[in-house]
Amino acid sequence: MAEKKTVISTDILQEAYKYGCKNNNELTPEMLQSLGWDNSLIIRILNIFTEKRLCSIKKSKLTSGNNQNKVFFILRSEIIASKLNKLTPDEYQVYCCIENAGNQGIWTADIRKVTGLQTHIVQRAVKLLCNELNLIKPIKSIHVKNRKVYILASLEPSKEIAGGTFYDNGEFDMTFVDYIQDKIIAILMSKRRATINEILDFINSESSVDTCSSRRSISLSDLESVLNMLIIESKILCFKINNTGEWLYMCIYWPSCLSTNIGVEDVPCLSCPVFNTCSGLFNTPILPCPQECIYLNFLLDKDISLYEKNQE
Questions:
Q1: What is the CATH number of the domain that holds 229?
Q2: Which pLDDT value is given to residue 83?
Q3: Of 134, 150, 222, 268, which sits with the fewest C-beta atoms within 10 Å of its C-beta?
Q4: Residue 21 is part of a domain; what is its CATH number?
């Protein structure tokens, strides 16, 4: 049986800190007990970490069959702790309040309610934490105009607060959406058809980055929303390959004799009786496909070819 350590030292403190860093920056008394340390030593270690502002204290939520909150000590970096040690108790209280808010953020009125501090003290602390120490940052809320919430500088705000990829500083960024649409059209025109993952890789790849327009990567769900927008605008088609079940996207090349502002209700494919078996491939002698459709001229009452070749 390992001998229990009872004497505190710098080496013991460093060992405990490194052990917590390896465990997702979390420490609990039970974790330190597994190292064979005495309970009184563990309490002193955690008290020292708290006094030196090296950690914050969290409590787990109550669950069925568990009537006690489990206490976690969340370690902070030594750089952050060194900055926090410069704060007054009131300023540190404001920081902890913002830290506890997580990526949802908190605005100054709620900080006052939680801490009980006066308005000018909260405002002065927020200014110090934000402008001088760079420990927090303001985020514009998309729900309330001219309201800023504050989160830790190391966090990304939640979509509920900041709006996600297509919002910039609380405002919907239509320029960025147009940029993504242009990139989608570009790859579909060059490849003729592509999967959603191929489109995503193209947009987020370094080779497609336009330093004037591209400021951030997009997720799969972000891309789906833009693709759906282009489908509604009748600029692209989405069809399923029957033998693989894979969905492909391709551009719609409207003939010059048709209006480019054609409405969804005017697209004959949407009411086509063989829509589910239409493959969208160019070399299908058996299955129907848009390029060889025998119904389009009849439905549109025009002698046209649906797809026009690009002039080289």
A1: 1.10.10.10
A2: 95
A3: 134
A4: 1.10.10
Mark whether 93 and 151 lie in a shared domain: yes
Residue 272 lies in a domain: yes
Query: What Cα–Cα distance (Å) separates residue 301 from each residue in 258, 268, 295?
Result: 11, 11, 10
- Mean pLDDT confidence for 6-32: 88
The residue out of 24, 47, 76 marking a domain boundary is 76
| Mean pLDDT on 261-279 | 60
Nearest to 107 by CA among 143, 76, 81: 143
Which residue segment(s) compose the domain that 269 sits in? 262-311
Predicted confidence (pLDDT) at residue 280 exceeds the cutoff of 60? no
Q: Say whether both 176 and 158 belong to one domain.
A: no
DSSP string, 87-155: S-HHHHHHHHHHHHHGGG-B-HHHHHHHH---HHHHHHHHHIIIIIS--EEEEE-SSSTT-EEEEETTP
- Which residues lie below 8 Å from residue 63, measured CB to CB, with a gap of 6+? none
**How confident is residue 136, by pLDDT bands cut at 50, 70 and 90?**
very high
Tell whether the torsion through CA atoms of 83, 94, 150 and 50 is positive or negative.
Answer: positive
Residue 2 CB neighbours (<10 A) = 7
User: Of 261, 233, 273, 253, which is closest to residue 193 (Cα–Cα)?
Assistant: 253
Torsions phi, psi for 206 (to 5 deg): -65, -30
Residue 261 has pLDDT above 60, yes or no: no
- Would residue 180 count as lying in a domain? yes
- On whether residue 159 sits in a domain, the answer given is yes
Burial degree of 285 (CB within 10 A; 0-12, 13-18, 19+): exposed
Residue 25: inside a domain, yes or no? yes
Residue at 213: amino acid letter: S
Note the pLDDT tens digit of each residue in 166-205.
Answer: 887 777 888 888 889 989 998 888 887 888 999 998 888 8
Domain count across the chain: 4
